[in-house]
Amino acid sequence: MPHSPRRRIRPRRVAALVAVTVLTLAVSTSAGTGHLAAPTTAGPIGLARSTLSPCLIHSGLDIQMTEGLPTAAGYSRSTGSVHALTLMVDFSDAPGQGSALDRFHEFFPQTQEWFRAASYGRLDYHPETPITSWLRMPKPFKEYGIERGAPFDPGYRQLVQDIVAAADPEVDFRSYDLLNVLVTPNAGPSALDTVLSVTFAGNADAPVADGVPIANASFVYSRQDDGSGSYSRTGYRVLPHENGHTFGLPDLYTQEGGSTVGHWDIMSEDWGANNDLLGWHKWKLGWLDGNQVGCAAAPGTVDYTLTPLYEEGGGKLVLVPLDARTTYALELRAPGGNDEAVCKPGILVYKVDATVDTGRGPVTVYDAHRGSGGCTRSPNVQAELSDAPFTTGESFKDPRHGITIEVLGADASGNYKVRITRS
């Protein structure tokens, strides 16, 4: 299924908070302790009878690439050894610039390292290039009719068929989990004008090669170079974003150019400084164990201790369900690992809605400091949401659902204790 490519980030104000209250730190003796000790299996698979089952949210009807669980069949697996067939293609009207391997090294080994850090080593990503030269397509680029938002049919179907025909003598497509097509950067406009990069994922009607459908394919065009001089360090990040779709993750930016998540997930902003995935996505992909996820579904008060999301081990995610299709989620974000742009550590609170389509804002981050202008001036990082996390003495309230989330404080190791109360 096609996913519309992103526009360049334009900072805009996002007002998404239910309620933010600053309060005096107080510990209630009625508080229980959330031990984050559910199953030890990775991810949300097989949890129907677990203590986490009340926090599983399910897709609405006819939702494209939903945040609901479980992820639908047809996407690439996201744990263990994942083999990414990577081909560099050019055209008679856009001959390859430099060597094909130069293009390959714009993305690797940085993409491998990003996935290794994000997954705590659970995704062993292998980019494989059985053809190390430019793979010339039989038609000029302009004849494929590829432009921003182009559907799979007819242009991309023809392009995939032509790629398969050209590569098949040297490639056994049965050996790979997904396909990366790195297009010569001079095919199509600059990314500063329009971003063509796109992924077709879980495509049940994809062309077949060597008996397997080419159902999960990412196409990368141009270069995401904003002129800040950071391209060699940050330009690769379009590829882990696009590959996120092959694993079943939706776009978190909105197709109108807005953002309800800011720089807190690479599926929202993949320009500029490095960033990680939300804890919800890490759990959805099988990178967190059940005993790292808490479920605050019952009435009462319970405390949890969270460790920074970028660190391996410890409690990582607490879910506070609203109904069968929506939940609040909270996690501790701090600078480190892939999260280099975090300028105000604290508890990130957001809502996940399984009834919202990809590219329409299925996740909403709540800003603890609305109207502050944020705490970063890093290029292509949405400033307003950069200081969204809640810190010691601050709380998030949803009076309609009788939910209060309080940040009680941090210990010497940088772990945070939170208290959740449901009436």
Which key features would you list for this structure?
423 residues, alpha/beta, six-stranded mixed beta sheet, 22% strand, globular, disordered N terminus
Summarize the structure.
With 423 residues, the protein is α/β, with parallel strands linked by helices. Helices cover 12% and strands 22% of the residues.
Q: What is the residue-averaged pLDDT?
A: 89
Head-to-tail CA distance between termini:
42 Å
Return Rg in Å: 22 Å
Morphology: globular
Helix fraction?
A: 10-25%
- Count the E strands: 19
Major sheet summary line: 6 strands, mixed
The helix-and-strand class reads: alpha/beta
From N to C, what is the helix and strand string? Answer: EEEHHEEHEEEEEHHHEEEEEEEEE
- Report low-confidence residues grouped into runs of 5 or more: 1-31, 37-42
Q: Strand percentage, roughly?
A: 15-25%
Q: Can you list the strand order of the major beta sheet?
A: 1-17-18-19-12-2
What does this structure look like?
The chain has 423 residues and is α/β, with parallel strands linked by helices. The protein has helices spanning 100-104, 110-118, 152-167, 231-234, 238-246, 279-284; strands spanning 20-22, 32-33, 80-90, 123-128, 135-136, 178-183, 198-200, 208-209, 212-213, 217-220, 293-295, 300-306, 317-321, 326-333, 346-353, 363-365, 394-398, 403-410, 416-422. The strands form 4 sheets. The protein has a 6-stranded mixed beta sheet, with no helix packed on it. Strands 3, 4, 5, 6, 7 and 10 form a 6-stranded mixed beta sheet that branches. A 5-stranded mixed beta sheet has the order 11-13-14-15-16. A hairpin with a 4-residue loop joins strand 17 and strand 18. The longest helix is centred in the middle third of the chain and has 16 residues, at 152-167. The radius of gyration is 22 Å and the shape is globular. The model is unreliable at 1-31 and 37-42 (pLDDT under 50).
